[in-house]
């Protein structure tokens, strides 16, 4: 799982501003800490879509400082972020991945859509085509 550090800053109107040191495009706000952190995850995923659209690798999270708030991404989002980064690293385009997986482009588009509930088996197949595999552990 990817765990991104969050910076919560009190605003002059009583809300909390949310920022991410690793992802400057991700910003949000909340009336209290709980709402701010909930909105932070949405802001982070929205920023990742910008990176996906611009075909830029998503920066990995920096180490948390003691007591620092954070956002833990869901496993499915983490798998898709790491998949996209690997595709960029290997210079594999979506069309090439579709060819390797023997599927049509809309299926690859959904595979890389953070809002789509992709089956784990399909993600594993994509990793395999890139010479990688997924490892799951419990903490």
Automatic annotation (TrEMBL):
<dbReference type="Pfam" id="PF15919">
    <property type="entry name" value="HicB_lk_antitox"/>
</dbReference>
<dbReference type="InterPro" id="IPR035069">
    <property type="entry name" value="TTHA1013/TTHA0281-like"/>
</dbReference>
<protein>
    <submittedName>
        <fullName>Toxin-antitoxin system, HicB family</fullName>
    </submittedName>
</protein>
<dbReference type="InterPro" id="IPR031807">
    <property type="entry name" value="HicB-like"/>
</dbReference>
<feature type="domain" description="HicB-like antitoxin of toxin-antitoxin system">
    <location>
        <begin position="4"/>
        <end position="123"/>
    </location>
</feature>
């Amino acid at each position: 799982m990817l765990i991104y550090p969050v910076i919560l800053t009190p605003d002059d109107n009583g809300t909390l501003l949310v920022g991410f040191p690793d992802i400057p495009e991700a910003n949000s706000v909340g009336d209290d800490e709980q709402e701010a952190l909930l909105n932070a995850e949405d802001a982070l995923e929205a920023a990742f879509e910008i990176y996906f659209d611009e075909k830029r690798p998503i920066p990995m999270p920096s180490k948390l400082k003691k007591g620092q708030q954070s956002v833990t991404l869901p496993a499915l989002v983490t798998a898709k972020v790491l998949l996209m980064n690997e595709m960029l690293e290997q210079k594999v385009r979506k069309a090439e991945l579709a060819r390797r997986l023997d599927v049509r482009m809309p299926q690859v588009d959904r595979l890389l859509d953070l809002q789509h509930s992709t089956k784990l088996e399909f993600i594993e197949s994509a990793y395999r085509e890139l010479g990688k595999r997924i490892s799951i552990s419990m903490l």
